[in-house]
Amino acid sequence: MLKEKRAEKIGLHFSNHPKFSNQHSTLLVKVDKYFFHIPPTKNDFKELEHLGELDQNYRNPPTKMSLSQAKRLVYRHINWQPTQKQQKTPPRKKYRSSYFTPSSLGKMEWPPTRPKRGSR
Description:
Order of helices and strands: EEEHHH
Shape: elongated
Distance between the termini: 71 Å
Helix content: 10-25%
Number of strands: 3
Largest sheet: 3 strands, antiparallel
Low-confidence stretches: none
Mean pLDDT: 77
Strand content: 15-25%
Radius of gyration: 29 Å
């Protein structure tokens, strides 16, 4: 999106999560009315202003979109089609314990017997 001029580089911020106890910076990118942080390049340090600490009071506007809808939107933008193997998810098997013993609680007779056909 940066190459297509659909996103704009704003500046650099210090990261709130230092790597190996070393302070590092992230690149602030604006897409429409949303802001994101991505790893900067060496040229970003030369060309962009460092904005200092990250402002914790700022939040992106709330958006309600399912993950599958967001993935479809991104896939359409980058012209990517999932392969057949990636599209199919294997059916889930029900968990059955090999130690399962049916309960006889609530039965009137012991040992439990099978009901006779037609005796209802």
